[in-house]
Structures are given as structure tokens and as C-alpha cells.
Amino acid sequence: MERLNNARGEAGFTALQLIIVVAIVGVISAFTVINIRASRESIALQNSVRVLAGYIEKARLDAVRRHDTSSIVFTSNNSYNARMDFDGTGTPYTRTISLQPGIEIPAGSPLPSISFNWRGRTSACTNTFAFQNASGGIQSWVDVSDAGDVTVNSDVDVLPNVSYAPVNGSTGIAPVTVVTGASTHNNTLDCDTTTTGAAGPPVTGNGSGGCKLTVNPSSITIKKNGGSTGSIVLSSNSSGTVSASGPTNLTLSPSYQVISASSSATFSVTSNNRTRGTFAVNFASPCTTVTSLVKVVN
């Protein structure tokens, strides 16, 4: 009898115990895989952003050195062309750079670009390049001021206007300065603050059978991180459900509405984080889909 009891004690784990252990290991493994994937996407996003910031810095210095223009132009939501003198020969050419896999500009958003003049300046007060991972859960951005200052995941504020006093040329300051270089000097106004961010005109999408869906306005400006709320009105000549969708940094309320024929519905748009830039918001009905651009600013 004693030998039989010993044999039972050495029988090992029961089937239920094994199932519980396997389930626990599976849950832990799933969380580990999710964390590793999120970490990889975050690293890829930051690498892509910092590579772009580096090319922007090089483009600005190249424009100053050659007294000419240089540019960074996105040709798709995950690649851009950098045009500058890469070899130091004085002749610029274009090089195409791709973001890391899974990193992109939010779908439907305008493709950003920046051009430096011979003084290393831009015509826009702030240039913003906003990116996200494939799922949209992680976002990052690059800001470039009109003076060429580059920041990553930080804010570039517009400096206040200052008054200038006339300089007397008789004090020894040359009244005319000649700068040698290319003939493509761009002397247009830097940082034109006259832009008010006015709302865009209504835009209508047409569908089969003569149905129409109109979005008004077609573009709006709101402040980051809940600083302000914008309103977009949708009207249709046919009844149906209109669904709103956009990037994760924007909150659309409500997410959908039922519109009767020849009536309208209002959606509100709010920024829920510090990501800035211009983003596409889509409104889809059984008839067609229309887009409104939302510019998020400081």
C-alpha cells in the first residue's frame, strides 16, 4: 500500500494544471509580442523623423552655401525627394528617401514640402511634417520655422513683429550689397503673417443616380490639444447614414449621423494631442465620400 501511494505522488501534473500553465504562458507571450511590436514601431517612427530633420538641416545649409535654392518635397505618404548639392561640386540633384516600413503621413492628408531660399529661409512661418505608424496609434512631427530652426516633437512659435528704424547710409554702411551666386534668388516676404486660416468653400461629391453630398467648409483651422473646436456641416439630397473618420489625433463627434433627404447634419472636430499639421477628415455616405481638411495649429 505504501508503494502504491508513492507511485500516485510521483504521477506529475494533472491535465487541468497543464492547461492553466499553458494559458498563463500564452497570455504573457501575447503581451510581450504586443510590447515588442509597439517598441519597434516607435523606434522606426523616431528614426524616420530624425532622418528627415537631418536632411532639412542639410538642405538649409546647402542653400546658404550655394546662394541658391534647395528643397524637401514629399511625393507619396512614405517617401520624399531631397534636392541639394550632396557631393559638394556645386551642382544640385535629387535623391529619393523612403520612410521606414510602417511609417507614413496620415492617409489623405496633403503631402508637405519645404523650400529654402538663398538666405536659408522659407516663406511660411512654420512648416510641419506629421507622421504616424501604420495603425495610427503613435504620432510624431518635425517643425521648421521660417528662419530654418528644426525641432522634433516640439513647438515652434511665431515671434512677434518688431519695428525697424531706418539706417543712415552716411555712417559707413554700404547702401547696396551684392551677393554672388546663382540667379534664382527668392526675395519674397518671409513668414507672411497675413494668412488668417480662413475656412475653405463648400465642396460637393457626386454619386450614382444623381445623389450629392456637400461638406461645408472644405477646410478649417483648430488649435492643438483641445484648444478650440471646429464645426463641419454635411448636407445631402438623399437620405442615409454619414460616417466620419480621421487620424487618431482628431476626435470627431458624433462618429456618424443619419441625414434625411435635403437636410443637413453637423459634426464637431477637436484635436486631442499636441500633433500639428493638416489632416484629412472623410465623410462617407451610401452615395459618395467627401473630404474636409483640418489644420491643427498652436
Task: Please explain how this structure is put together.
By secondary structure, the chain is an alpha+beta fold. It has 2 domains: 34-160, minor pseudopilin epsh domain (minor pseudopilin epsh fold); 203-297, Immunoglobulin-like. The chain is 20% helix and 35% strand. The protein has 2 helices and 18 strands. The strands form 4 sheets. Strands 9-10-12-16-14 form a 5-stranded antiparallel β-sheet, with no helix packed on it. Strands 11-18-17-13-15 form a 5-stranded mixed β-sheet, with no helix packed on it. A hairpin with a 4-residue loop joins strand 17 (277-284) and strand 18. The mean pLDDT is 82.
Summarize the SSE layout with pairings.
Layout: H1 2-9, H2 15-66, E1 70-76, E2 79-84, E3 93-98, E4 103-104, E5 113-116, E6 126-133, E7 139-145, E8 150-152, E9 203-206, E10 212-216, E11 219-223, E12 229-236, E13 240-245, E14 250-253, E15 256-259, E16 263-271, E17 277-284, E18 289-297
Parallel strand pairs: 11-18
Antiparallel strand pairs: 1-2, 1-5, 2-3, 4-6, 6-7, 7-8, 9-10, 10-12, 12-16, 13-15, 13-17, 14-16, 17-18
